[in-house]
């Protein structure tokens, strides 16, 4: 009897509360999907360094799963609370017919077990299926070979999912038992008759509250959006607190003014079923101020984390092509201190000879290569470069600080060296008149600042020679191989203008004579080995002549090594952004959907009354659609406003990575939000429409 009654109740719940089961199933599948990555990656053919990155990623995801489990657990308890509320009169009927509270608790226990087993089974099946599809995505992130990959079921992920969700369902069972034990029969019988109290707050107080909150938010927006370079950790913490508190009071003030504002426009308020629509919406918003605040903040975090993760991933992919157009680079610089003359001099380095002495035959490894020299004229610094235009530099910028500190020496290179490097890179070469120079840079913030004197045709003096700019803006080129922009400024001057005694740095840049990935890896192992490093430094230190080394620079890097470093960053940001973002989206959508469905069930009699007084079915469904749309849009709109300024703050730091276009990331994020949040909206509307039609029939 108990089993049949439980099964009957579940069937009824499936019809009325599809969102609850949908949330459980998608929660289980997402939890399994991200915890199965460890097993999936075991069958991928990757390097040892990548395997270590995968191990680190799995540890981080495992730790994040604890946080995710807590969020999903709270969501399940929250959802169960609304399900219980929907069934209060049903429980009252059981008590009236003689069933004890312990019997109702056993009934709920049986239902929870069946619901748990069903959601776990379906969710795991979906998760296992999706994990096979996402394997290709995982392999692409780690640039792995999938030839040995096959259908995989992660036993460890299944066990972890069963344990975590088993604990959640046990908590739900205890919660339901306590709730039933505390409720009186009269309260259960009258629960459907109790409507939410519609509060009409003082509109003047609400308006003042709104204006203060909006002003506080505007101040926080300004600080994070336009004073980013000077912001401290304490300032950022204050902005976060102000943002959270202001969001709450904005919802609180708007909820108090919402109905008043609509009622002030008689033409709008009394058109069609608008009066009914606005009162229903106002009732929902009035009783969910704190929940709407949390949902808004979760949506804000979701959109920013997804957009930021995709931007980092896309940027790093583009950067490897843009800032690493060769296969290998060796950069050397060594300064010695002359104690007798109290001066520092830079040692002249023959890079090709050093490699030869270390046992590296350039003809054996390289298809083409070049050695370029970077010079430094002590009189050519940031003060000379910017001249009278230094006053236009942003306050607290690195350039302004350099000027105020007495000037930082600028780097220069000759035109012939620049063109030799461009031939290795496969990029266009340049030409210069005897009195011209070209400024190179690829860091966005520095480009904007260095363009100021160029736009005004500012002349500079380098090695005693006066030069004018060839272009009115910087040429975006890289000198050092990197996976992020690192060229803060290099001046290209005509051949013969540089003083050979002022040579500071030497760079050998090369392209390998093979396109085979395994062969390139062998070359990397030879050129980047500790043995080569030790031999090169031993050869350099032979020039010490008893003097101490004042400073040294050693850059020994390859494109494959930089690509390897990219893999870990891309995978970590992408998976964490997706994991947290999807869970927060599920949570936000489910809370709104469950509340909307609960209110719809409680208001079924009101919709029936509308039909009795002659309202068209089209107008009734139109009112329901408007309520659902506005209810879901309410927290989303403010979250989008937060996101605009939040991403402006984030873009300041993404700029360092070379990010220039976040449109693709924005579109991908919008697609995920539309799919999950929009999916909850659609399910809520369709289920609500079915509920009010069923009550009519």
Radius of gyration: 33 Å
The helicity comes to 55-70%
Count of strand segments: 10
Which quaternary structure do these chains form? single chain
Number of helices: 25
Structural class: alpha+beta
What is the 3D form? elongated
Point out poorly predicted stretches: none
Amino- and carboxy-terminal Cα gap: 29 Å
The overall average pLDDT, rounded, is: 80
Largest sheet: 10 strands, mixed
Q: How much strand content do the residues show?
A: 5-15%
Write the layout of secondary structure elements.
Elements: H1 2-16, H2 18-35, H3 37-42, H4 48-86, H5 88-96, H6 101-141, H7 155-182, H8 185-190, H9 203-226, H10 233-264, H11 266-269, H12 274-286, H13 289-322, E1 328-338, E2 343-346, H14 351-357, H15 362-365, E3 366-381, H16 382-386, H17 398-404, E4 409-414, H18 415-425, E5 436-440, H19 444-455, E6 460-462, E7 465-469, E8 490-493, E9 503-512, H20 517-527, H21 530-541, E10 549-558, H22 559-602, H23 604-612, H24 617-654, H25 663-696
Quickly list its features.
elongated, 697 residues, single chain, 66% helix, alpha+beta, 10-stranded mixed β-sheet
What does the model show?
The structure is a single chain. The mean pLDDT is 80. A hairpin with a 2-residue loop joins strand 6 (460-462) and strand 7 (465-469). Strands 1, 2, 3, 4, 5, 6, 7, 8, 9 and 10 form a 10-stranded mixed sheet that branches. Helix 4 (48-86) runs parallel beside helix 7 (155-182), helix 9 packs antiparallel against helix 10 (233-264) and helix 22 runs parallel beside helix 25. The protein has helices spanning 2-16, 18-35, 37-42, 48-86, 88-96, 101-141, 155-182, 185-190, 203-226, 233-264, 266-269, 274-286, 289-322, 351-357, 362-365, 382-386, 398-404, 415-425, 444-455, 517-527, 530-541, 559-602, 604-612, 617-654, 663-696, and strands at residues 328-338, 343-346, 366-381, 409-414, 436-440, 460-462, 465-469, 490-493, 503-512, 549-558. Among the domains are: 1-194, no CATH class; 197-287, no CATH class; 340-513, no CATH class. By secondary structure, the chain is of the alpha+beta class. The longest helix is centred in the last third of the chain and has 44 residues, at 559-602.
């Amino acid at each position: 009897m108990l089993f049949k009654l439980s099964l009957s109740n579940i069937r009824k719940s499936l019809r009325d509360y599809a969102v609850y089961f949908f949330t459980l199933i998608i929660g289980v599948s997402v939890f399994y999907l991200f915890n199965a990555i460890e097993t999936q990656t075991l069958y991928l053919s990757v390097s040892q360094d990548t395997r270590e990155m995968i191990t680190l990623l799995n540890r981080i995801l495992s730790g994040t799963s604890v946080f995710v489990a807590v969020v999903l657990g709270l969501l399940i308890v929250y959802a169960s609370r609304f399900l219980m509320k929907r069934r209060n009169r049903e429980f009252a009927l059981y008590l009236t017919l003689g069933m004890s509270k312990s019997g109702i608790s056993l009934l709920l226990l049986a239902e929870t077990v069946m619901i748990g087993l069903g959601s776990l089974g379906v969710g795991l099946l979906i998760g296992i299926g999706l994990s096979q599809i996402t394997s290709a995505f995982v392999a692409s992130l780690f640039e792995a070979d999938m030839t040995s990959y096959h259908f995989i079921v992660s036993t460890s992920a299944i066990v972890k999912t069963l344990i975590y969700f088993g604990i959640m369902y046990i908590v739900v069972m205890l919660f339901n038992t306590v709730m039933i034990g505390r409720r009186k029969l009269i309260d259960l019988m009258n629960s459907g008759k109790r409507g939410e109290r519609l509060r009409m707050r003082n509109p003047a107080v609400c308006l003042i509250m709104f204006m203060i909150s909006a002003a506080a938010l505007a101040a926080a927006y300004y600080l994070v959006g336009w004073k980013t370079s000077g912001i401290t950790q304490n300032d950022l913490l204050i902005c976060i607190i102000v943002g959270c508190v202001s969001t709450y009071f904005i919802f609180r003030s708007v909820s108090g003014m919402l109905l008043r504002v609509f009622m002030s426009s008689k033409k709008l308020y009394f058109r069609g079923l608008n009066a009914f629509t606005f009162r229903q919406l106002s009732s929902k918003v009035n009783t969910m101020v704190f929940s709407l605040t949390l949902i808004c903040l979760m949506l804000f975090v979701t959109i920013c984390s997804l957009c930021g993760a995709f931007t980092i991933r896309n940027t790093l992919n583009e950067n490897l092509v843009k800032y690493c157009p060769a296969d290998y680079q060796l950069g050397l610089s060594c300064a010695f201190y002359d104690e007798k003359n109290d001066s520092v001099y830079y040692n002249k380095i023959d890079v090709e000879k050093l490699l030869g002495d270390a046992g590296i035959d350039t003809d054996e490894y390289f298809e083409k290569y070049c050695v370029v020299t970077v010079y430094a004229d002590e009189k050519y610094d940031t003060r000379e470069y910017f001249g009278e235009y230094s006053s236009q530099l942003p306050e607290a910028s690195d350039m302004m600080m350099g000027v105020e500190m007495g000037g930082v020496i600028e780097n220069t290179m000759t035109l012939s060296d620049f063109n030799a490097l461009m031939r290795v890179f496969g990029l266009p070469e340049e030409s210069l008149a005897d009195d011209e120079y070209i400024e190179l840079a690829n860091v966005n913030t520095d480009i904007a600042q260095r363009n100021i004197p160029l736009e005004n045709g500012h002349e500079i003096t380098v090695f005693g020679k006066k030069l004018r700019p060839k272009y009115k803006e910087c040429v975006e080129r890289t000198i050092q191989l990197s996976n992020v922009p690192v060229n803060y400024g290099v001046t290209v001057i005509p051949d013969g203008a540089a003083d050979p005694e002022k040579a500071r740095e030497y760079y050998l840049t090369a392209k390998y004579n093979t396109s085979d990935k395994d062969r390139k890896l062998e070359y990397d192992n030879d050129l980047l080995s500790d043995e080569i490093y030790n031999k090169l430094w031993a050869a350099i230190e032979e020039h010490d002549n008893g003097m101490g080394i004042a400073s040294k620079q050693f850059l020994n890097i390859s494109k494959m090594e930089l690509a390897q470093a990219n893999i870990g960053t891309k995978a970590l940001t992408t998976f964490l952004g997706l994991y947290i973002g999807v869970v927060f989206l599920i949570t936000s959508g489910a809370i709104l959907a469950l509340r909307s469905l609960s209110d719809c069930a409680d208001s079924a009699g009101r919709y029936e009354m509308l039909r009795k007084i002659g309202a068209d079915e089209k107008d009734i469904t139109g009112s329901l659609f408007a309520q659902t749309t506005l209810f879901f849009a309410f927290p989303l709109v403010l979250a989008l406003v937060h996101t605009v300024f939040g991403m402006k703050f984030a873009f300041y730091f993404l700029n360092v990575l070379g990010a220039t276009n976040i449109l693709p990331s924005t579109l991908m994020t919008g697609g995920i939000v539309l799919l999950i949040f929009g999916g909850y909206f659609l399910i809520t509307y369709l289920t609500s429409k079915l509920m009010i039609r069923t009550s009519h029939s």
